[in-house]
Amino acid sequence: MKKREFWMLVTPSLVVMVGLLAVPLYRTIEWSLQNVNYGDPGTFIGLSNYTTALTDPRFGRAVVFTVGLTLVVTAILLVLGYLLAVAVNRLHRMRPIVLGLLLLAYVIPGLVGATMFSWLFDSNFGGPVNYLIAHVTGQDLLWFTDTWPNRVVLTLNIVWFLLPFAMLVILAGLQSVNPEVLEAAKIDGAGPFRLHWNVIIPSVSGVIGFVILISLMDVLRVFDPLVALSPQAAAIGNESIMFYIYSVAFKDGGQQLGLGSAINVLLIIIIGIMLIPSIRATAREGSR
Amino acid sequence: MTISATQDVVARKVLGADEPPRRRRFTGTSVLVGGFLILTCLAMLSPIVWTAMSVTKPTDVAFLNPPVFTWQPTLDTFVDLWQTTNFYQYVINTLVVAVISTVLALVLGLPAAYALSRAPGWISTLLLVVALIFRALPRFAVVLPIYDLARSVGLYDTTFALALALVAINQPFTIWLLRNFFADIPTTLDEAAMMDGCSRFQVLRRVMLPLMGPGILTAGIFVFLFAFQEYLTATILTDVNARTVPVFIATQLGQTLPMLQQAGAAAVLFTIPAIAFAFIAQKYIVAGLSAGSVKG
């Protein structure tokens, strides 16, 4: 392809991405160095927003909570997603129906799903899950206002939303495992556990890497579920980094837009670090 | 489709469409697997089912603790939703945003993805890595400046501004997905068409577009779905005029019980098309999710 043709084809898309992604990103970096508000030119204050963020215990709590949540959700997604994919892979006629039912959680908007979860759990809304637990253990859990029950319900909601995706991607990977290799391993006397652990999982490592990538990106940026499930997130230590940004940079007129922008930049750095392996893999894929 | 589209083959495999039916065998393992699947499906459906139950209860028992399991079903909440809120307007807004952003995303993304799939080399690699980074950006890092911009040019609280922002935010994903579909079409086709005197643009329009049917449909379905689901961008960029359904549902939370139940009714009405979508477009959702994940 000629250079001129390449650029003519790419330019329209590039203009939109530069104008509405790159330029705004530059603005965020600029704002992070300013004392600023919307529609206001702002005054340069150096790195003081960053020192405020890094010395703020609330930011530290948000980072620890978000990273912890991300690691837990990713681990659960891999284990459950793999088990579910193996189970669905055994189905034949029922498969489209089961896939359709499992896909529901993926097509429902995250906020709507989280709202539904809040009604399923919290006693304020007569949640049947809470009713069941109270019936069995005699304990009435405070799903919205107690730190750990709230963490459990947030984790369950995010897993609920991402599990169909993880299952489908791993299922697609299972389809590409060479049946002859499986046959050979069985003849060599590998039991079901060895078969999965030593043969199948290594050969689907590519898709597992993909699930990890998406899960890291999505959960590090988690926002929607907290709106419905954790209205008092900051008070009980369950604030995600994105929720923190929202409350300082937008809610109530964006009093601390500079600080919010600095946290945005810090979040980008955290995501960047966690994505280094994927970025390298992408670079290899692209130059293929 | 006469061409061998890898994504399509993967989707058919995942859906089990090509497998010959086998005779059923009931073994210990299959009972275990069946039980696991039934339990998982029930757990995955439980929030949806419970919400659907809650909104057909009379308001005074809908959120009662302990929960009520027998009641006289009523559709009053849906009537209330229709009469006391602008739900109708919010549905129209959501659809307008989803349609505009889908059309624009494809019009911009198709040529770019084609060029990237046909021009290996450092530019292509660089752009793909940049696309991944942009896809991983926290929304607020771009949406708050877009909010500032939209206010200053008078586009705040319009469906167009929201649609345009979503086009940009989803463009990296769109290009990635379409590029993988283009990469499955052999370049010998381009060369043959150009030998016959087609320019690059004619190749794209006359040769590639007809072959890209499944790819375009898959990308379109995903961009539509993302716009339909979006809460964060919509809550920042809209107020009352361009409000979308997810934003409406969020504003109803923490209010009175009747308003909460209306939010539930809105959620159920909003979920029904999504459920239809999950079954009708299943093949394309599967193809899209597997694209780029099983390569190599």
Q: What this model shows, in words?
A:
Helix content of chain A is 75%, strand content 1%. In chain A, α2 (48-55) packs across α13. Chain A has one domain (56-286): MetI-like (MetI-like fold, Orthogonal Bundle). In chain A, β1 and β2 (43-44) form a beta hairpin. The two termini of chain A are 16 Å apart. Chain A has 13 helices and two strands. The model of chain A has no long low-confidence stretch (mean pLDDT 89). Chain B has 296 residues and is mainly α. Chain B has one domain (79-290): Orthogonal Bundle (MetI-like fold), CATH 1.10.3720. Chain B is 75% helix and 0% strand. Chain B has helices at 6-14, 28-55, 59-62, 76-84, 87-118, 122-136, 139-152, 159-183, 187-195, 200-211, 213-229, 232-237, 245-252, 257-280, 282-290. The longest helix of chain B is centred in the middle third of the chain and has 32 residues, at 87-118. Chain B is globular and about 75 Å long. Chain B starts with 5 loop residues before the first helix and ends in a 6-residue tail after the last helix. The mean pLDDT of chain B is 85. The chains are: A mainly alpha (288), B mainly alpha (296).
